[in-house]
Design a protein that fits this description.
The complex is a heterodimer of chains A (261) and B (388). Helices cover 36% and strands 24% of the residues of chain A. With 261 residues, chain A is an alpha/beta fold. The radius of gyration of chain A is 18 Å and the shape is globular. Chain B is mainly α and 388 residues long. The chains are: A alpha/beta (261), B mainly alpha (388). The A-B interface holds A 68-70, 93, 96-97, 99-101, 103, 105, 107-111, 120-121, 124-126, 153-156, 166, 169-170, 173 and B 278, 280-281, 283-291, 294, 298-299, 302-303, 306, 385-388.
Chain lengths: 261, 388
């Protein structure tokens, strides 16, 4: 279980509105012969914080990667911010501009400084003037509380700092949706908290978030809904309270009994 | 242990340090010159034997070499008489007078004497371009790149080949020679092989079957034959297939051959670099909205090329030395001019050939070694920038 204890009042009530940010309908995906995703349906509303959990290999990450087109899918529909993802490269690029993603392995660009990591996409994709991009980047680096590292290279930072830079880098594109793919799984235990705190702050600011994580403490405190996946299928979706205290499905009960010891 | 608070739990297994242990100076002869000798020269018996053998070998080789190249060398003279053994000179070393006499020939080949300022100007322009690009802190390196890859080749072509309307008479490439040819072949090979190599490497990793197959066939075919074969094919076989009037210049054919050959090698070097870049870098760039070419240009290639600097340099050094092979297809490169000059009856002495070859070795060594030092410097500098 997570060592992180979040204050119960840390998170404001969800501001989830009626607007749909992401709609996944009847999503199927195969890796060769292997059917990784089966009939996945999920609707994310603007401002909503959703945590996806489940055993490894259950397809959690794959769902995220289908949303920003890192993985192609074979059947079903994914609509992000009104844009339906298909094989059209242009539409995928459009979606990626609006969806920020944070990876388990940070994936910072090691040959660029922290500041350059943050301004690369705004300058080259959004065509933001350099000075303005740097101003935004510094503001966001302050928000993740590492402005003093702006001119260092990723290799000189700790894992937790790198992951916070990765969050700032994604935020620099001013995304409408932030996706986190196991953002704390590659971190030393001592650094998990600083990253989770940053994510909580982001949630407080009303960001729409889709988080794949094993940090059940985070799910309990921040999520509006928890999605449990197993074997490529969505098994249960519920509010954190119901999910943790009254799990409905047998598989959910088993999963929770194993991780919540 | 006196100050340590001894906690007698479970028979003295528990321990709490009372004060920090002091840092002691290192033991005798583990640092400084003595320490260095002990660690590096006499670390083990095998090492000690190697050290002694190496010293003996150097003592055997170096003094005669120094005597031949410097002490007994003949520095001035008008013809072979200066470099012949005589009562006055019982031991004759290298005949540098011969090299000095032919220096212009080694540099320009048979380029017309009144046009050699054109070659000098080319050398200066080349030096400016190389200096501008290689000096990493130089101002406006973007202009430098434009100059080197855009302006310089075009101006050089007309400068060296000729442009009658401007009063530069045409000098057929068959009259070019010496260092001029060596530098032209090397620079053209080095400059064209990099972009071609990158494209071939990308082609080989492409998901499009046609592009991939063509790249693989090209790379494997070119790597499978010796450069000399490529050059012979370019110079002898190509004219058989093309009508006389379309057959390109002999030098151009050799340049194309050298470029394609080195591109195939460069492709494999670049591919190794591309393969070393984790998939996560592509994914992170994609997730930020960067397209394929931008990701390549901004994220992947800077890293891939950086880690392959030693291998790229290795290819360049090999290419620089391989330029000597153009002499088999009748082009008078630097080595060929030395080869020709040493047959000059005016300078026929027992030491002429040795002197000429020693000079060639020296020139090639200086060129290749400076490339190597430069690359080492760049590597060190980049290593400071991003410690991983």
């Amino acid at each position: 279980m997570s060592a992180v204890e979040l204050k119960p009042d840390a998170v404001a009530p969800s501001r989830a509105g009626g607007e749909v940010a992401v709609e996944i309908k009847g999503l199927y995906k195969w890796f060769g012969e292997f059917n990784v995703l089966r009939e996945v349906d999920l609707t994310v509303r603007r401002g909503e914080r959703i945590v996806i959990c489940g055993p490894s290999g259950s397809g959690k990450s794959t769902v995220l990667r289908c949303i920003n087109g890192l993985e192609p899918f074979q059947r079903g529909e994914v609509v992000v911010d009104g844009i339906s993802l298909g094989n059209d490269v242009k539409r995928i690029a459009e979606v990626r501009r609006e969806v920020g993603m944070v990876f388990q392995q940070f994936n910072l660009f090691p040959h660029l400084t922290v500041l350059e990591n943050c301004t690369l996409a705004p300058i080259n994709v959004r065509k933001t003037p350099k000075a303005q991009a740097e101003e935004t980047a510094l503001r966001l680096l302050r928000r993740v509380r590492i402005p003093e590292q702006a001119n260092k290279y990723p290799g000189q930072l700790s894992g937790g700092q790198q992951q916070r830079v990765a969050i700032a880098r994604a935020l620099c594109m001013n995304p409408k949706l932030m996706m986190f793919d196991e953002p704390t799984s590659a971190l030393d235990p001592e650094m998990v908290k600083e990253v989770l705190d940053t994510m909580v702050q982001l949630a407080l600011d009303g960001m729409t978030m889709l988080v794949v994580t094993h940090e059940m403490g985070f799910a309990r405190q921040v999520a509006d809904r928890v999605v449990f996946m197993d074997a490529g299928q969505v098994v249960e979706i519920n509010t954190p309270n119901e999910f943790f205290n009254h799990p409905q499905h047998e598989r959910t009960k088993l999963f929770l009994s194993q991780i919540l010891k | 242990m006196a100050d340590a608070q001894a906690v007698s739990v479970a028979g003295g297994f528990a321990y709490v340090r009372g004060e920090p242990a002091p840092a002691l100076p290192p033991p005798f002869a583990s640092t400084g010159f003595l320490g260095w000798c002990r660690a590096n020269l006499f670390g083990t018996p095998f090492n000690a034997v190697l050290t002694v053998l190496t010293v003996l070998l150097l003592a055997w080789v170096v003094p005669p070499l120094v005597r031949f190249l410097l002490i007994d060398a003949v520095w001035t003279g008008a013809d072979r008489q200066a470099c012949l053994e005589s009562a006055a000179h019982p031991n004759v070393g290298a005949c540098w007078a011969f090299v000095r006499e032919h220096l212009a020939y080694f540099t320009y080949g048979s380029y017309p004497i009144d046009g050699r300022w054109r070659v000098d100007l080319f050398f200066i322009m080349l030096a400016v371009g190389i200096g501008w690009l290689l000096w990493l802190d130089a101002p406006r390196r973007d202009l430098g790149a434009l100059y080197f890859f855009g302006i310089f080749p075009i101006v050089s072509f007309f400068l060296l080949y000729g442009l009658p309307p401007l009063g530069l008479e045409v000098v057929d490439t068959s009259r070019w020679g010496g260092m001029l040819i060596t530098l032209v072949v090397a620079v053209v090979g080095i400059v064209t092989s990099m972009p071609l190599g990158i494209l071939l490497a990308l082609g080989r990793r492409s998901r499009m079957p046609a592009v991939k197959t063509l790249s693989v066939i090209f790379i494997e075919f070119v790597r499978g034959v010796p450069l000399i074969t490529v050059l012979f094919m370019a110079s002898v076989m190509l004219p058989l297939f093309l009508p006389q009037e379309y057959s390109p210049d002999k030098l151009v054919r050799a340049l194309v051959g050298v470029s394609l050959f080195s591109a195939a090698y460069m492709a494999e070097v670049v591919r190794a670099g591309l393969q070393a870049i984790p998939k996560g870098q592509w994914e992170a760039a994609s997730a930020l909205g960067l397209g394929y070419w931008r990701t390549l240009h901004l994220v992947v290639l800077p890293q891939a090329l950086r880690i392959t600097i030693p291998n790229i340099l290795n290819s360049y050094v090999a290419l620089f030395k391989d330029t000597t092979l153009v002499f088999f297809v009748g082009i008078f490169d630097f080595l060929k001019t030395i080869e020709t000059a040493r047959a000059n009856p005016l300078w026929a002495t027992p030491v002429t050939s040795a002197s000429g070859y020693a000079f060639a070795a020296l020139v090639y060594f200086v060129c290749c070694y400076s490339m190597s030092r430069y690359a080492a410097g760049v590597e060190r500098r980049l290593a400071v920038g991003d410690r991983r």
